[in-house]
Amino acid sequence: MWNKDLLTPFSLPNLNCKDFDDLKSSIVYNNISHYTKDHFIRLFENKIKECNFISLQGLDNFQCKDLILGCQHFIDNLLLKYNIKNVQIFEHDYNYYKILHPHIKYTTIDTLEKGKPLLIAMPFPGHLSVHNNFKDILKKCDELEIDVHIDASWLPASFGINYNIENKCIKSIAMSLSKAFCMGWNRIGVRWSKLQNDNDSISIMNKFNMINKISYQIGCMYLENYSLDHLVSLYKKDYDAACKFL
């Protein structure tokens, strides 16, 4: 029987399963040493296309592909490049921004400014899905020529999302395995960009092979053994039942 009194709304651990723990305990370096960066990117892209619970169109338009140490790396790179005061962020996005900048002034559709990049999560934390006004936001960003960068850290572990990211304003999107495979202990993901920037810190780290090799090799092992939506397939019925009960 579900008991709402047992829910812990703060500091929830990422969802996990015995399958992932068993795979983790079976890792042997000789079995994964052949994997390369290109293997990881190709496997990740194929698994995104094979997802049963989400659909993302337009990723093929992003031809510059770099490994990242989780989506936090992607976010911090943007904040380093522009400074958080020069990045537009909507209220109810990732709480990290409020912690970094307690007096942050959030943007709205009406106050979007030309020339200042927008960083937005998809799914959006405050709406538990794509931002309710996402289409209107992108339309205005196209009109004002605002560069949009999408933090899709939760997308691989989500369901019910079907979206096209072909808008001209979208310049980069990042995803990692942390949420889908409970791999916060081995943060690894991909940033897809439309334009190559050789002065960008992530680009530099990739160019000089500064991304931990074992991280993407372990990632390849998980990707070859499980779908990105494995946890959704495993727990969605129980999740739906709990929501109806509570």
Task: Characterise the protein shown here.
This protein has 246 residues and is α/β, with parallel strands linked by helices. 37% of the residues lie in helices and 13% in strands. It has helices spanning 18-25, 29-32, 37-50, 71-82, 96-100, 134-144, 201-207, 213-225, 230-245, and strands at 54-57, 64-68, 118-121, 148-151, 161-164, 170-176, 189-193. The strands form two sheets. It has a five-stranded mixed β-sheet with strand order 2-7-6-4-3, with helices on both faces. Strands 1-5 form a two-stranded parallel sheet. Helix 3 (37-50) runs parallel beside helix 8 (213-225).
**Count of DSSP-assigned helices:** 9
Helix content: 25-40%
Structural class: alpha/beta
Q: Write down the Rg.
A: 18 Å
Overall pLDDT level: 94
- Extract low-pLDDT stretches: none
Distance between the termini: 11 Å
Largest sheet entry: 5 strands, mixed
Shape, per Cα inertia axes: globular
Q: Strand share of the residues?
A: 5-15%
Strand count: 7
**What is the spatial order of strands in the main beta sheet?**
2-7-6-4-3
